[in-house]
Amino acid sequence: MRYKTHGSGTSAVEVTNVSVHGLWLLLNEQEVFLPFDKFPWFQDAPIGKVVHVELPSAQHLYWPELDVDLEVESILHPEQYPLVSRVHEAGDEYASHRRTAELDEQKIDECVLALLQLTLHDGVRAWKGLDFQVMNRLFEKGYILDPRSNTKSVVLTEEGLARSKELFKELFRRKAIK
Predict the structure, then answer these.
(1) Whole domain around residue 36: which residue ranges?
(2) 20 and 48 together in one domain
């Protein structure tokens, strides 16, 4: 018996090989290499987590167990997506670091902790794309788990989650008009 047409592929994206230098990804019938020096999030990750990749949209790859999101364009042209900040390389500090002497760090920390409510997902995880020094202070205060990892989110502690909710209401709830 012969079939007239072949079946469709099972996945639009698949990790096909991993070596000490990087990994190969089959992406819509094109094989691309992701070197660890350009994509360091995969170098020390367990193989089972590296091979679990999803393609939520045509231009977006996601490794859910590693919490790594990549644009397809960043894989095809990694030179256009440097890992190092030009500000950091120039030896300049970020604007927020230059002004800390005149700012109330406690208020900043509370505001950031409250803002973590906006990106809360999976019950206790929030995206950590905020100032590194603030995130480290929140960790030292016991509100979040150690933010220094290759994931893009941070876990709030029980105390941090409760305080974050409280601060969010306190800082951002509209006041009743009298």
Answers:
(1) 13-80
(2) yes
Q: With left for phi above 0 and alpha for psi between -120 and 50, is residue 46 left, alpha or beta?
A: beta
Residue 134 and residue 101 share a domain? yes
Strand duo 60-63 + 68-71: pairing: antiparallel
Identify the CATH number of the domain in which residue 118 sits. 1.10.10.10
- Reported as a single tens digit per residue, the pLDDT across 136-147 is 899 999 999 988
Kindly report, residue by residue over 31-64, the tens digit of the pLDDT: 999 888 888 888 888 899 999 999 888 888 888 8
pTM comes to 0.45
Rounded to an integer, the average pLDDT of 12-18 is 90
Which pLDDT score, from 0 to 100, does residue 2 have? 60
Give the DSSP H or E segment for 26. strand 22-27
Say whether both 47 and 116 belong to one domain.
no
* Greatest CA separation for the chain: 81
Rounded CA gap, 172 and 115, in Å?
A: 9
Residue ranges in the chain assigned as alpha helix (H): 47-50, 72-76, 86-89, 95-98, 105-115, 132-140, 158-172
What per-residue confidence (pLDDT) applies to 21? 92
Which of 55, 80, 105 is a domain's end point? 80
